[in-house]
Structure to design on (355 residues):
């Protein structure tokens, strides 16, 4: 609810002033910055329940070319819990790929050995009537090659999301200065 | 000081479903509008197309889209196109994840908008779609309607309208 009026009670009686004070409906929750040692995963834990949607914005770089960044929710690494579908271009052609609940993680972006950006959204993350679905926009330019795409991933669970882990495919790691920031968007 | 999203209207579909979600009397004091949609249709199909109307109008729209189906890519133009939303034969409890961005909705120029949309299901065929839309009308936008082509939006579908503005 927006604040629309301020009331003061003084010697000269009650005064009302109308204000237009839009609330900040998009708020930062947490940021992680990978240090010099690198990291295979980044985790946001104890995510507050007071928002309607979540958004993660990141800049990422890995030590190996053409690797997936993936996401897991509430630490669920079980078999056949995640789908993914991808639409991507590489500067010369476009392709699509994907499949059903067959993975232990949700593939949300391709990453490479240069920094690339990603924004991904999770709507209604506390709604227990909905399977949780991620939408991500991502890209990385390698000065000659590169990729841009939109991905989706579903987690086969209607439980409210309380933690998000982002990780590298295989044994790869995120390099120093990789950063992911979690935002809450109020409803 | 930048004001990020301010929620203007939030709609949650009830048990009876609805064929359209409408935002009326949109305030005119923001720069851009954002609509976030988590929607699902009732039709006996994998997906149902959702379209947008502005100020109640379905005319003077053009569109370009690119879509991935999980196996192939297509591109073209479908006027008023928002996306292929999950319907009854998509995996149960799976809703779309969709964002419509309308910049400068109170300008005296034609209104352009972009759509990022995904549909998920337990199978190869699922849609990831990017669209660019244009409403060739210089009228300020005061009303947005989301209309599903077949059946209704089902219970728990949500659509939230946000205003975005920057102030220094």
């Amino acid at each position: 609810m927006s604040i629309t009026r301020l009331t003061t009670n003084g010697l000269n009686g009650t005064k009302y002033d109308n204000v237009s004070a839009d609330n900040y409906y998009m708020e930062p929750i947490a940021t992680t910055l990978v240090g010099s040692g690198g990291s295979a995963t980044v985790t946001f834990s104890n995510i507050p329940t007071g928002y309607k949607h979540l958004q993660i914005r990141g800049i990422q770089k890995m030590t190996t070319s053409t690797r997936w960044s993936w996401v897991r929710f509430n630490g669920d690494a079980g078999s056949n819990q995640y789908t993914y579908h991808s639409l991507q271009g590489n500067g010369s052609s476009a392709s699509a790929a994907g499949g059903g609940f067959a993975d232990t993680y949700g593939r949300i972006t391709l990453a490479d050995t240069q920094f690339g950006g990603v924004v991904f959204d999770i709507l209604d993350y506390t709604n227990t009537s909905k399977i949780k679905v991620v939408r991500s926009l991502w890209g990385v330019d390698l000065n000659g090659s590169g990729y841009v795409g939109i991905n989706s991933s579903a987690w086969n669970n209607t439980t409210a999301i309380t933690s998000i882990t982002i990780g590298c495919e295989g044994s790869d790691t995120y390099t120093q200065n990789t950063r992911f920031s979690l935002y809450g968007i109020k409803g | 000081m930048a004001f990020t999203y301010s929620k203007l209207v939030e709609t949650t579909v009830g048990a009876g479903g609805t064929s359209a979600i409408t935002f009326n009397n949109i305030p005119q004091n923001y720069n851009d509008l954002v609509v976030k949609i988590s929607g699902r249709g009732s039709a006996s199909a994998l997906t149902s197309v959702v379209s947008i109307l502005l100020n109640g109008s379905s005319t003077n729209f053009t569109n370009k889209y690119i879509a991935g189906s999980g196996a192939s890519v297509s591109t073209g133009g479908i006027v008023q196109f928002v996306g292929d939303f999950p319907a009854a034969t998509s995996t149960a409890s799976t809703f779309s994840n969709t964002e419509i961005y309308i910049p400068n909705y109170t300008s005296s120029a034609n209104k352009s908008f972009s759509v990022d949309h995904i549909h998920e299901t337990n199978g190869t065929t699922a849609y990831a779609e990017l669209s660019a839309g244009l409403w060739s009308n210089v009228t300020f936008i005061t009303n947005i309607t989301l209309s599903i082509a077949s059946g209704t939006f089902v219970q728990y579908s949500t659509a939230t309208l946000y205003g975005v503005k920057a102030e220094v």
